[in-house]
Amino acid sequence: MSKQIPFFNYKGLFAEHADEFSQTFNDVCARGAFIMQSDLDDFEKNLAKFLGCKYVIGVADGTAALVFALKASGVKAGDEVIVSSHTFVATAAAVKHVGADPVICDCLADSTMCPESAAKMITNKTSAIMPTQLNGRTADMDKLCEIAEKHNLAIVEDSCQALGAKFGGVNAGLFGMVGSYSFYPSKTLGCFGDGGAIATNDEDARNLILELRDHGRGHDGKVKQWGHNGRLDNLQAAILNVKLKYYPSMIERRRDIAARYWNNLGELTELTLPPGPLEAGKHYDIYQNFEIRATRRDELRTYLADAGIGTILQWSGWMMHHFEELKLRNDAPRCEDLSQQFMMLPMNHLLKDDEVDYICESIVRFYKGSK
Ligand SMILES: *Cc1c(COP(=O)(O)O)cnc(C)c1O
User: Fold this and answer.
1) How many other CB atoms sit within 10 Å of the CB of residue 187?
2) 326 C-alpha to center of ligand 1: Å?
3) Rounded to two decimals, what is the model's pTM?
4) Cα Rg, the chain, nearest whole Å
5) Helix or strand or coil: residue 359?
6) Is the CB of 61 inside a 6 Å radius of any atom of ligand 1?
7) Mean pLDDT throughout 100-117?
8) Given this model, what pLDDT does residue 330 score?
9) d(CA 126, CA 129)
């Protein structure tokens, strides 16, 4: 029997708690509480509690969070910052927007930044390493922090895909001085538009970012530095406050789905799956994405599309070293290899078990049926 399983179910995000969201919307709008109001304060406090850090600052989106994090970490014009080729363009663009230059390094088989490759890119201009905590999994933070310490570099995590992921019990976003998160709708904690946040334990960084997000102004309205309009809307903060209550169970559901994919597909030699939830060692993964490597990938995607199953290629199939116009280093052999085979299966907390099973059966049929 055929099903329709879109890669992502945007309408479902509202439908799952429609009454509660409508009430929240009505309440916030009736109060006229649109910018920098109590719902934003509440959300910042609640998220700080969830993360176990001192401060959270809501900002306009994940990209603004990255720019502010780089500034607060002391990255300045003329510096070099090391980023993996397997990342969203926003990581490298944020580096450019503070006047520094992104330098591309390679990734590991699990898609996270390769510490050895990052170490090779260090020059006397390097001021930070910027690992992308990709697909809801952190990089090897023991190795990266050791390299950063040895060379006196900042760690500036792009943890936009990893809110709640941990390494050695520490939350993604708390390895450097300032971590950044995105609440783009399809992120694990998504709002109903754009949104982002910063996490930090450093009071000076917090105060700097409070100014940066609000035109450089202090509490009294006096301008202290050149700033941005980079605030998180109060309405989005109110929605996020509702969703944060359900977030731990949403993460559990994602981990269950990852385990189900493993049970059904783990034996297929044609596929390489991301590390499973129980064999992760120091890692606690939240499965923002379930990115696999597949033999005959493009044929498989067509076959699944015909079976009603949506899949996508992260970054539309391109990694940073593919964008000639950006004139970056284009040497990242493991990323290049991965980009020939990678694809993402549906992964979100709204998926039902029978849908996951149907996806898996279809994949097994593709490989077994065509031998
Ligand atoms: C989503 C994402 C961002 C950017 O977040 P926006 O909120 O869309 O600005 C940055 N980096 C990575 C790795 C992301 O996945």
Assistant:
1) 19
2) 18
3) 0.97
4) 21
5) helix
6) yes
7) 97
8) 85
9) 8
Q: Whose CA is nearest to atom 2 of ligand 1?
A: 160
Quick: pLDDT tens for 328-342: 988 899 999 999 999
Pocket lining: 132 vs ligand 1, CB cutoff 6 Å: yes
Task: Say if ligand 1 is within 6 A of residue 158 CB.
Answer: yes
**What's the maximum distance between 2 C-alpha atoms anywhere in the chain?**
71
CA 42 to chain centre: 23
233/184 Cα distance (integer angstroms): 13
What atom in ligand 1 is closest to the CA of residue 184? 7
- 162 near 133, Cβ under 8 Å? yes
337 three-state secondary structure: helix
DSSP secondary structure string for all residues of 104-139 = EE-B-TTSSB-HHHHHHT--TTEEEEE-B-GGG---
What pLDDT band is residue 280 in, cutting at 50, 70 and 90? low
End-to-end CA distance of the chain: 23
Which whole-number Å values give the CA distances from 322 to 73, 103, 137, 339, in the listed order?
28, 13, 23, 10
